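Tokens in:
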């Protein structure tokens, strides 16, 4: 059950998990690895899961769920012992993250606080998302059902994703839709979540423009001035200082 191979694997996974935190969390770059190991709840939850998953694979009764339960109580991160997690996962801040039983996560993935990899309905079998390598999932995003998230995709904060996500795409909204930023996809794990496109606002803006066009046509046809019923006010400033900067 335990041997030099197992100990070597555990040591490698520990180094990779700590390295992921130091490389992708700016706040962790200023502290030593030991401090990260002792004080980062996302790292604690991941290490506890690796223990619980190992016990689960060995068909040890009770212990895997007990470890997972204790980890959730201490870190606020719930990971089912059966979930399959790859190398160098970063759970940033950690609170409220839920990873379901049949979820699969690849290598170099980043999850922010409040992310859910959940199921839908009561069907048995594969019912949670599969997330490929280098995916970044923003705060509060909900990925539901046996969907597939392609390599290096990004999911915006508070998105609700119920369909497959293409590789190298950015998804935002409820339900989540693939979008692009400035004609190209954002680069790196620190995507500018505050300025992702808003498909709902774009649709409302298009409807407002169409209504204005129809009102103009009505004025020409009847010769009667149509009083405006209101206007669409942008949610973001068009000028001045950026409240999301820095």
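Residues out:
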């Amino acid at each position: 059950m335990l041997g030099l191979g197992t100990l070597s694997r555990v040591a490698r996974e520990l180094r990779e998990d700590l390295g992921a935190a130091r490389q992708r969390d700016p706040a962790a770059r200023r502290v030593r690895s030991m401090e990260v190991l002792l004080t980062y709840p996302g790292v604690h939850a991941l290490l506890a899961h690796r223990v619980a998953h190992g016990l689960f694979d060995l068909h040890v009764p009770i212990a895997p769920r007990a470890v997972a339960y204790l980890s959730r109580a201490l870190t606020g991160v719930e990971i089912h012992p059966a979930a399959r997690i790859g190398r160098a996962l970063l759970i940033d801040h950690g609170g409220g993250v839920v990873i379901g039983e049949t979820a699969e996560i690849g290598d170099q993935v980043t999850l922010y606080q409040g992310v859910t990899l959940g199921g839908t309905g009561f069907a048995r079998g594969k019912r949670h998302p599969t997330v490929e390598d280098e995916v970044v999932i923003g705060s509060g995003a909900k990925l539901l059902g046996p969907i597939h998230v392609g390599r290096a995709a990004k999911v915006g904060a508070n998105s609700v994703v119920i369909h497959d996500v293409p590789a190298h795409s950015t998804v935002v909204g409820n339900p989540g839709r693939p979008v692009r930023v400035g004609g190209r996809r954002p680069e790196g794990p620190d995507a500018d979540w505050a300025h992702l496109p808003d498909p709902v606002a774009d649709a409302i803006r298009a409807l407002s423009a169409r209504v204005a066009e129809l009102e103009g046509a009505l004025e020409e046809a009847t010769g009667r001035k149509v009083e405006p019923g209101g206007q669409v006010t942008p949610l973001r400033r068009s000028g001045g200082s950026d409240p999301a900067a820095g």
